[in-house]
Each structure stands twice: as C-alpha cells, then as structure tokens.
Hints:
Distance between the termini: 49 Å
Low-confidence stretches: none
Amino acid sequence: xxxxxKSPLQIARxxxxxxxxxxxxxxxxxxxxxxxxxxADQAEIKKLFPQTYGMPLLRFERGVKxxxxxxxxxxxxxxxxxxGGHNVISGLFDGLQKLNPENKLYGFLGGPSGLVExxxxxxxxxxxxxxxxxxxxDIIGSGRTKLEEEWQFDKGAEICKKLNINAIVIIGGxxxxxxxxxxxxxxxxxxxxxxxxxxxxxxxxxxKNEMIETSFGFDTxxxxxxxxxxxxxxxxxxxxxxxxxxxxxxxxxxxxxLECALQSQPNICIISEEVEAKNMxxxxxxxxxxxxxxxxxxxxxxxxxxLIPEGLIEFIPAMKKLIxxxxxxxxxxxxxxxxLTDDVKRQYVKAMLTAESCQFFRDLPKGIASQxxxxxDPHGNVQVSLIETEKLLIEMVAKRLAQLKAQGEYKGxxxxxxxxxxxxxxxxxxxxxxxxxxxxxxxxxxxxxxxGKTGYMSSISNLTAPAEEWIAGGVPITMMMNIERRNGVMKxxxxxxLVKLDGEPFLFFSKHRNDWAxxxxxxxxxxxxxxxxxxxxxxxxxxxxxxEKGF
Length: 551
C-alpha cells in the first residue's frame, strides 16, 4: 500500500461546493442604506477618520449584468489562525475571476509584514485549489505585525504600485481590522487609489455587533472544543473519580466558554463578565466551586467538569486593576527588562504599585505573580494564555476542601486533571457553516472592491437561515470604533463584544446551570463535527447565534 498524502476526508472536502446567498449566484446591484456613526466617541473618531467616517451600510441584491474594470488585489492573513481563512481567499479569488477574468490575486506572506517587506506570491487557480475547505492559514501564513506607522503604509503603497494592486483585503480580528481602517483612511488622504477591505476573523467570537453577527472560526473552534469536553464528561462519568478543570481560549470575552457550556452542559462554568459585574473575588469563585463539589460528594459523585475562560483573571476587579497598573508600568520599561531574576522583578513591581494593588500582588502565589510580569503581547497586554488559571483554582479549591474535611463538612475525594484547549481548535477543517460563511465573506469582499469601496468590512447576515437566504453587504469599519487605552495611550480601536448578561445565551445558561450542577448530571456529548448528512446535523450555527436570534 502506498503512503497517503491526504486523508479520505481531505480528499472529500476538496470537492465540497460552499453554499452562498442566492443574491451572489448571479449578477448583483449595490444598494445603500442609512449613514452610520461610530459606536462611541463620535467626535473623536470623526476627527481621526474624516474620509471614511459616516459612510452608509451596503447591501448586494440580485441585479442586471454589468462590466467591472480590472482590479488586482492583495490579501493578508493577520493574527491568530481561525478555521475558514482559506475559504475567504477561495471566495475572494472566485469572485474576482467571475467579475473580470483579468483580475489577479496576490498573497502577502507571513501576515502584515509581507506587505511592508514586499514578500508575496501570486495566488493562481492551482494554488487556491489545494486549500479549498481546509483549515489553517498555511496558504500564505499569518503574523501579528501591526500596521500603525506611516512608513509601513508607504512601503505597502510601493509594492501595490509595482504590482498594480488596486485593493488590499485584511482578514483578521478587531485589532487587524482597526489597522485596516487606519490604512484605508491614510490611502484615501494620500490619494493612492488603494482600497482596503476587512473580513471578521477570530475564534474568540468578540468581533461582532448589530451588523456583524459572528466572526468566522468561532463556530468550528467551539464545536471542536465541545467535542473534547463531551469526551471528557463521558470519561468522568465512567471513571467517577476526577474533577476536570478545563480552561478555554478567549482572553477578552467568554463567548467560547459560554458556547461550549451550551453545547455540553458541564457541572460548573465560570463566565468572566458575570464575575466582573458581581464584583467577585478569587475567594468568591472558589467558594462557588466548592459548594458544587461538596454537594455532589454528598451523593457519592466525586467527579465533574468545570469550564474556565482564559481571560478570567482580568475580570476579577482587584486583578483587573492590578493588571492595568502593570500594563502601564511595564510598557517599554527598559529598567524592568534589565532585571535578571523573578524575585528582583517582584520587588521592583511592588515598589511601583498603588497600596491596594501591591497588597493583592503580595497575596498571589509566586508562580502567578511571576506570570503576570512576563513579556507583554504586541498590544502591551499581559499574555493571559500563559497564566495557568485552572491550576490556581485547583490549588485554592483543594486548600478549601481540606479545611472543610478537617471540620467534618466534606467527606469526598478530590482528584483533578487540568486541561487547556486552545490551539486544538484554531486550524480545524472548517464546519459546513464556516466553510459557507467564509466563502461568502470572500466573494462579497471581491464585490466591494469591484464597486470601488474602501474602509468597509465584508458582511454576511441572517445567518440562522439557510445559506441561500443569507444577506451580503458591507459595514463601514468606523461604525465599530471607539477610543480605548492601549500601551498606556488612548487609541481608536474596534470595540470588543463581551458576553451580554442580559442576552439570551447567558440567560438560558443562567436558568439551567443549577440543574447541570446537581447530582443528576445532564451532560451532552456533541461528538465530532459532521460534514455529510442532514442539514440539522451538519449545517447548524452555534447555540449562541440561535439563541440570540430567538431560536
């Protein structure tokens, strides 16, 4: 038998034809909606983006045939991977070819740095064919270089002029699309003739608003994680001897954790936004966990699952205040960076913090305190993915249970296993939903470019309906902007969407979580993503999206 170069599923998925809105199947006409304004800080955003502020919402509908000029386009994959990125490029390529066969698509290599350093390849039909319906960003690679400086914009304009590129598509999250907005404004002001279009990507699910219903990759990643959680729950209820503490990706919002809870119904699920709203301390969180563990132990159930959002510690008010001080203190701090040992660094930090934050910092385990002072991410924030919150909670819960056992109030056994699910879901083969959604986003981006638009994000809405009924259009990126502190400086950024505690997904969870916690475990076992079969099994969006739309 010859060794395989592709799995049977890879071969089958290569033949999958994504479903798209009926309006994109033929000729289209562009219709304009209402003019827009930014979600907050309107005067400041308008001043910073005079050329692209206040543009109208756009929508594509069935229309009459028209001819489009030749448009060469460059595409960038920016930030962390998310399932479906290759289908955005496939849809973009197919859309450009359909609108004008003379159009060319170039891929900038390694993320935004490829634009600045002039590293690129032409994406041909043969290259694109190899990546249709596949996970990952390996077609051209990704990177986290931020496009913030004018010299970067000018270097980008140089290569665009050389290749006769008329537009750039940036596929990324909120920070990457903020960069796209800044780039679009700069190129308009400089009259370069270069358009910039964004596409909403992030598995975290925090790039959404009234016009962007979800970011791509969220559906697939959550289904991957929910499968693993279901497998663990089946094991837990079989072995009956372990509490599984499962930390899930999502630093700024708990959308992944909430969606996985809705899909799997664990015994305990912590939502960061609720922790912040209730002004909870670490001890409050520990006590809530301990109550469930003790109650289940009373019925002889010394096992269960606990879901923990990656960014939890940033939502604990005292911790949030501490981290904000550390972010400002350590931003470009050469004195701190020159210190050699963790002990010396801790002493330096203690001397610089406010009294309240200093005391909180002192009370933390040394390991967590050291992790809080590690190198910042490109945006100047603490790298919460490096902080093992699940281990911190295990340590604190075990200590509290030992106290209760000594008092005769707990007679159970507490054995634990910790997990972190992150990279397991970022490059999975996209679900049918993400394959369809991403292809439609790319195709819509091609239409926006051909219509001469810039400063827009490609938009597909009505996502709980069959794909044929989806609505394609464009949303001005300035509509999503506000002013926030980054790296100690106030900057315009796309506002992150956090879990709404009055939203239907959280309300459903809140209503049912006590039932999931009790002695009669109500585990759901989602199983692996299904690509073939009835639509009810294969094409459904997330529970979050369904609940938000009233289903």
